[in-house]
Specification:
signal, elongated, Copper Amine Oxidase, Chain A, domain 1, 9 helices, Thrombin, subunit H, 6-blade_b-propeller_TolB-like, mainly beta, Neuraminidase
Length: 818
């Protein structure tokens, strides 16, 4: 009996000692990196020191933790620092240096608990105790986080990474290269394209592309030396958005329903972070930021403390340079644009009002492109918007003074032979086999918008100057065409068809010599002045013009063009004594007059069709057209419409596909108006001209007016019912001007156009003219038509008294001169 009492007393004493050694004061709060840390079990106090679960503290500070159950020892590694602890042992080790602990690690309720202050300070963080609130705060402000590509590049595909003296670049159809800064010499390091490039020292970490020849290896995580050798697989997961921060590769595992994972640089320690699905992934200061179901969310790098920062329909997102703000795009009917919030989800602010394709902040600037392919840059606050390029449809990667992008282009059918290849915005939802056969064009453009370089040719990069709107070409070359007497008798279609010697087959080519499209043109001067449609030459780097399949001429330069009226006048090289067509007077056309169209549909040269002028001159958005039933097919564009006297009275330009042979031609008198102002214009300047611009806020005063150029379109947006938008233009000669305004739904209703108000004012703000409502084809528009003297003018666009919020937000201005 005495023995039993002694044993009982011993057990009671042991429990008392245990209770006094591991006390659990009420509500000890642990703040790590700015927010309360969620733990598996509550902290306890031993020998005056707070113990918390080993994984909670180490993993919240991005350390890799290994537990040896046999020896009950813990090894944690972070950025070259190795910490070793053992349950019940007062001795710890930091990089093999012994350190005595005030409180030893313990097993409590099946959890390994470690001394918080020791761990935090051993990893280099600052640990503070607030006795009044029983709060321990661990901050890592002194840490210098190491990343190996920019977040903006990674969320845009990570196909460019700058490291040391090289840019490492993946070309979708050529493979992976490195290019020394300041040069255009490409050194191939991998025959296959890759994505999500991160470069650390002499290692490149990357994800295989969907073109990798072994299907099972596509989209898997690899690394190789910077010379392309020693390639090794790190993970078999189907991977996207892989980025490296310090010791970890964070990525989205598409094999596991797009959940976030992490793995060490050596391929060990692969872990699922969370069961939340993710698109876009960013990491900073121990937090993962990602898009889940359209919302911007964040959680710790160990998957805990999940929260929603912004409940919006979100596309791209990226950090600013300091990583204290998140830029993101929204794509919704009334709220499309670029926004910014702080990384805690506060201070949401709209910077840009437009539908955005991709964004990439870099060096205090924000680069983005819209779905029309226009590339812009602004300051971080959205001010100072400047357009720097067009036809930029792919993701944007930035390195130094260059913006890199890839345009993905679907193969064209033969029926599209005269249509400029239009890049597509995204390939993410496209079938893998289709993606593998896409045509691509790889470019980079200077951040100041001065030069574009084509990079996917085998030789040196091909530099293409970019000419900004308003560029003046100082070598005048006015066109003087000698008038001829009209024949006394009319000609038969057979006689008119004998003029095919003056009809050209026009073929356009890109920077690599690859064909873009084809169309028709006609000669009006014996030394080779060719008239065609503007859309025939759009995007061309070189143009070849052929006559009767026997003689081919290169285009030397452009003499003049008008994008709205779809006119281009070309000068060919080394031509003389060429047959010409006489020009008629399109103002004297009569309804029912017989006409002949000659062209090269589907490159079938000198095809002839006949018809009549089937309608009076049609005005569509301020531009006049001749209506004819003479058949016009793809490839006819730019060809002559000839009257029965053998005179050109129009340029065949388009047809209505679902109509009964309703076709249109540009009146020849519109072409003649370009002759006096002709000058020598480089082909690259004319063929890549912008046809549409976007309003740049703020432009709510005369002094902040946006520039508006004749014969272009302007897309604007009302922020609210009190918004004012000013646009400025200059005329050098007396000019008839038509300014047309329409909104996004005026095609469907005539009432909402009354909510749009246009005013033409002088430079001092005095009214010159107010818009009136007018029917334009199937649209109803606001219209100002007036003849103006040379000078500076403004257009004021504002909601009228009939405007109600959300009636519409976007509007379009069309500026036509005659």
């Amino acid at each position: 009996m005495k023995k039993i009492i002694i044993v009982f007393a011993f057990l009671l004493l042991q429990s008392i000692v245990s209770f006094s050694s591991y006390s659990a004061p009420a509500k000890i709060k642990v703040i790590v990196r700015g927010k309360a840390l969620t733990m598996d079990v509550a902290p306890v106090v031993s020998s005056g020191r707070t113990l918390i679960p080993v994984r909670d503290i180490f993993e919240s500070l991005d350390a890799y933790v290994e537990w040896n159950a046999k020896t009950k020892s813990i090894t944690a590694t972070r950025c070259g620092k190795v910490i070793k602890l053992k349950i019940g042992d007062n001795a710890g080790f930091i990089n093999d240096a012994k350190v005595m602990l005030d409180a030893s690690p313990r097993m409590i309720n099946g959890k390994a608990m470690v001394p918080l202050r020791f761990v935090g300070e051993a990893l280099g963080s600052k640990v503070e105790w607030d006795n009044s609130t029983s709060t321990i705060t661990i901050s890592t402000d002194s840490w210098v986080e190491k990343t190996y590509n920019t977040t903006g590049n990674i969320v845009n595909g990570g196909f460019v990474c700058s490291s040391g003296e090289y840019d490492y670049i993946s070309f979708y159809n050529l493979g992976t290269y490195k290019i020394k800064h300041g040069t255009s010499e490409k050194i191939k390091i991998n025959v296959n394209p890759v994505s999500f490039i991160n470069v650390i020292g002499d290692w490149i970490y990357f994800v295989n592309s969907d073109k990798y020849p072994v299907k099972s290896e596509r989209k898997t995580l690899y690394r190789m030396k910077t010379d392309g050798t020693s390639a090794e697989k790190l993970a078999s997961d189907t991977t996207s958005c892989a980025l490296i921060v310090d010791d970890w590769i964070y990525y989205i595992n598409n094999t596991d329903s797009s959940r976030p994972y992490k793995i060490r640089l050596d391929g060990k320690g692969r872990q699922k972070i969370s069961n939340y699905t993710a698109s876009n992934l960013m990491v900073s200061n121990g937090w993962i930021y990602f898009i889940n179901d359209g919302n911007i969310c964040r959680m710790r790098t160990n998957g805990k403390d999940y929260s929603v920062l912004c409940e919006e329909s979100t596309g791209y997102m990226s950090f600013n340079d300091d990583k204290d703000k998140i830029y993101f795009s929204m794509d919704s009917y009334s709220n499309s644009g670029i926004y910014v919030i702080k990384t805690d989800g506060t201070n949401k602010n709209k910077l840009i009002s437009t539908e955005v394709n991709c964004i990439n902040p870099s060096d205090g600037l924000l680069y983005y492109n819209d779905f029309e392919g226009n590339l812009y840059k602004t300051n971080e606050d959205g001010s100072g918007k400047k357009k720097i390029a067009n036809q930029v449809k792919g993701g944007l990667n930035v390195s130094g003074h260059w913006i890199y992008y890839t345009n993905y282009i679907l193969p064209k059918s033969s029926s599209d032979s005269n249509i400029f290849e239009t890049p597509i915005e995204s390939i993410s939802d496209m079938d893998t086999d289709i993606r593998a056969n896409l045509k691509t064009k790889e470019f980079r453009v200077m951040t100041d918008g001065s030069v574009r370089q084509n990079m996917d040719n085998e030789g040196p990069f091909l530099a293409i100057p970019i000419y900004m709107p308003g560029t003046t070409f100082t070598t005048p070359k006015p066109i003087a065409i000698t008038s001829t007497l009209r024949p006394e008798t009319t000609l038969s279609p057979k006689d008119i068809a004998k003029n095919t010697g003056a009809i050209f087959l026009i073929k356009t080519f890109d920077e690599n010599g690859e064909p873009i499209g084809s169309g028709t043109g006609f000669n009006i001067e014996s030394s080779g002045i060719i008239v065609t449609n503007y859309h025939v030459i759009k995007g061309a780097f070189t143009i070849k013009c052929s006559i009767d399949k026997t003689k081919t001429y290169d285009v030397d330069y452009v003499l003049n063009y008008n994008t709205l009226r779809d006119i281009a006048v070309l000068k060919v090289k080394n031509a003389s004594n060429l047959p010409v067509l006489d020009l008629g007077d399109s103002d004297k056309l009569e309804l029912g007059e017989e006409v002949v169209a000659i062209g090269n549909p589907l490159q079938l040269q000198n095809s002839v069709t006949t018809g009549i002028v089937s309608g009076e001159l049609r005005t569509i958005f301020g531009v006049s057209y001749i209506q004819t039933d003479a058949s016009i097919s793809p490839g006819n564009s730019g060809g002559p419409l000839i009257n029965s006297y053998g005179e050109v009275i129009g340029i065949t330009t388009m047809s209505i596909s679902d109509s009964q042979n309703i076709n249109f031609a540009v009146p020849i008198n519109s072409v003649k108006k370009l002759f006096p102002t002709a000058s020598i214009i480089p082909l690259s300047a004319a063929s890549s001209v912008d046809e549409a611009y976007e309003e740049s806020e703020p432009n709510n005063t005369i002094l902040k007016a946006n520039d508006f150029f004749p014969n272009t379109n302007m897309i604007g947006t009302f922020k609210d019912a009190k918004d004012l938008d000013y646009f400025n233009f200059t005329l050098n000669t007396k000019t008839k001007v038509t300014i047309i305004g329409l909104n996004e739904i005026s095609i469907y209703t005539t009432s909402t156009i009354a909510a749009l108000d246009l005013s033409l004012i002088d430079k001092s703000g005095n009214d010159i003219a107010k818009s009136i409502i007018k029917d334009e084809s199937e649209y109803t528009t606001q219209n100002i038509t007036i003849e103006l003297n040379p000078g500076d003018y403004k257009v004021l666009v504002k909601p009228s008294a009939q405007y109600k919020n959300n009636s519409f937000s976007d509007y379009q201005l069309i500026f036509v001169t005659d």
